[in-house]
Amino acid sequence: MSILPYAVAVWIFVVGIYGVVTSRNLIHLAVCLTVVQSSTYVLLLAIGYVRGAGPPIFDAVPVGTRTVDPVVQALSLTDIVVSVTVLALILALALDVHRHSGTIDPDEIAEMHG
Asked: How crowded is residue 44: how many other Cβ atoms within 10 Å of its Cβ?
């Protein structure tokens, strides 16, 4: 078992969090949140990897052969779909904020009243 995929997932997470903390733009913030989300793809795939295992197509693999867990792959695809949906929502909110306040800098956005 290698620790490299877990280290890569942590590194991607830290880079994304650093971008979120230092962001001066709502669009940049959304992209950095997407980078943070992509670290979960690497983590899920690292958890589901089995050395020497075959694909999870049970009709094509002989009985008794080790296979990769298909649930982890399904979770990764679900994670990607959720990430794209959340990114679209955040970008729509950023455009709405820009329309109302004229800026996308979080520090320059005036307090909004409903």
From this structure: 20
* Residue 106 Cα distances to 19, 36, 85, 93, 112, angstroms: 14, 20, 22, 12, 12
Give the CA distances from residue 56 to residues 1, 18, 48, 60, 72, in Å, rounded to whole numbers and listed in that order.
Answer: 20, 37, 11, 9, 11
Measured CA to CA, the distance from residue 87 to residue 70 in angstroms comes to 26
- State which amino acid sits at residue 37: Q
Distance of CA 51 to the CA centre of its chain: 25
Please indicate, yes or no, if residue 75 is contained in any of the structural domains. Answer: yes
Give me the tens of pLDDT residue by residue for the chain, a chain 114 residues long: 689 999 999 999 999 999 999 999 999 999 999 999 999 999 988 888 888 887 777 777 777 788 888 888 888 999 899 999 999 999 999 999 889 888 888 888 876 665
The domain that contains 49 carries what CATH number?
1.10.287
Total domains, the chain: 1
